[in-house]
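Design request, tokens follow.
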């Protein structure tokens, strides 16, 4: 078996491959945090202002639109400057082949209300080359997602009343 290595993409490769638009050079966002291209990542920005009240969860959208080829995947991470204030972006993977805008799941773990303006950097994305192009790139339910936040697209429950049985009632769990 051939040995392979994970490759994190550099700023110049992110730019050259056109993985997201707009793809801006490094700059300071409206609250002074880094945004745009970094050494080996890209800082996503909010498409609209958000108010994060204490201990709550919201959905928001990024300004940037992704267009990932079959050999590149992207991992969304917290921005450390916001994490230090109690703001977490649920880490998620954008599979190879994904196209569209990301919906970001944001939680305020702090006791303070935090307001972030439109254009504030909210998450850091690290892009990776796959060891070879995917045989089955992403074609899922969020493909070509628009610029507004999209809630979970959940399959209908197989149970008539929509209420799943608890652990004791599931077949095969005897």
């Amino acid at each position: 078996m051939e040995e392979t290595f994970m490759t994190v993409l550099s700023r110049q490769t992110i730019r050259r491959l056109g993985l997201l638009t707009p793809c801006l050079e490094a700059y300071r966002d409206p609250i002074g945090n880094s945004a745009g291209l970094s050494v080996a990542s890209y800082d996503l920005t909010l498409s609209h202002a958000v108010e994060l009240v204490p201990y709550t969860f919201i959905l928001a959208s990024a300004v940037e639109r992704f267009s990932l080829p079959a050999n590149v995947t992207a991992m969304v991470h917290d921005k450390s400057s916001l994490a230090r204030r109690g703001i977490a972006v649920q880490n998620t993977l954008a599979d190879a082949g994904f196209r569209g805008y990301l919906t970001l799941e944001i939680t305020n773990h702090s006791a303070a209300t935090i307001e972030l303006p439109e254009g504030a950097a909210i998450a850091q994305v690290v892009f990776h080359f796959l060891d070879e192009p995917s045989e089955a790139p992403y074609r899922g339910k969020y493909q070509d997602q628009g610029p507004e936040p999209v809630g979970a697209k959940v399959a209908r429950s197989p149970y008539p009343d929509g209420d799943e049985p608890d652990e004791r009632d599931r077949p095969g769990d005897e």
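Comment from the thread starter after seeing the answer: thanks! The CA atoms of residues 24 and 36 lie 5 Å apart.
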